[in-house]
Design goal:
Elements: H1 2-11, H2 23-30, H3 39-44, H4 48-109, E1 112-117, E2 124-125, E3 137-139, E4 143-149, E5 157-164, E6 172-183, E7 186-194, E8 201-209, E9 215-222
Helix pairs in contact: 1-4, 2-4
């Protein structure tokens, strides 16, 4: 093949460049942008000068194609790595979020012991105006084993302790029952409250004694 090419480079000299096509035509031929039947392609066989230019354009074009393929190949590899990294990062974040959520659920499922001392608290009953409100009590959003020391002069008996969004106790979030007993001059009751579904925010902690059905409430914050 090289011998044939060398032959055409020398066999048909045309120093006057008679009938030669324009440079852009030769370049288009070299880059396969013209059909095989184009007249200029036949001219190459009879003009060594045009064939030499054609060979030069062809070499430049083939080299640039190799460079482009190499760049595209590297870009494709880089894109694949970036995509794999992105997918891996997303998968890591998803698994991390699931793990954190599972840990949070596990933590919230472990019962927490808490105490609330209302012995010296001024109680607020049903429609009171809030002038004697207790300093706010806080409880976690978990299952809570709650020990409540009831206000001074409270009596023993069956009590309901509930957490509500309103003072009337109509929007109950959690409640529990226990028998209040006197110990060392104070009356206390123990109940279990499931506060896992409660959102952080302000609530009311209320106590109700079965015997008189009176509700006393205190400000509460779920955290």
């Amino acid at each position: 093949m090289d011998l044939i090419k060398d032959f055409f480079l020398e066999a048909n000299p045309n120093p006057e460049r008679i009938g030669c096509p324009e440079e852009r035509t030769l370049r288009a031929l070299a880059e396969d942008r013209l059909p095989a039947s184009h007249p200029a392609r036949l001219h190459l066989a009879s003009c060594s000068e045009c064939f030499a230019e054609f060979r030069g354009f062809r070499g430049d074009w083939e080299y640039s194609r190799k460079v482009r393929r190499r760049i595209i190949g590297r870009a494709a590899v880089a894109a694949s790595l970036i995509l794999a990294s992105g997918v891996g990062g997303w998968e890591y974040q998803r698994q991390r979020a699931e793990h954190d959520a599972a840990v949070q659920v596990a933590k919230s499922s472990v019962p927490v012991d808490a105490q609330v001392d209302l012995f010296n608290a001024g109680t607020l009953r049903g429609g009171d105006d809030g002038t004697n409100e207790l300093q706010q009590v806080s409880l976690p959003a978990s299952i809570v084993h709650l020990s409540v020391t009831l206000p001074r002069f409270s009596q023993s008996g069956r009590y309901e302790v509930l957490v509500s969004r309103d003072k009337a106790g109509s929007q109950v979030v959690a409640n529990g029952f226990g028998d209040a007993e006197e110990n060392s001059g104070k009356v206390g009751v123990k109940v279990t409250l499931d506060l896992r579904s409660a959102q952080s925010g302000a609530y009311f902690l209320a106590t109700v004694r079965d015997a008189d059905n009176g509700m006393y409430y205190y400000p509460l914050r779920i955290k």
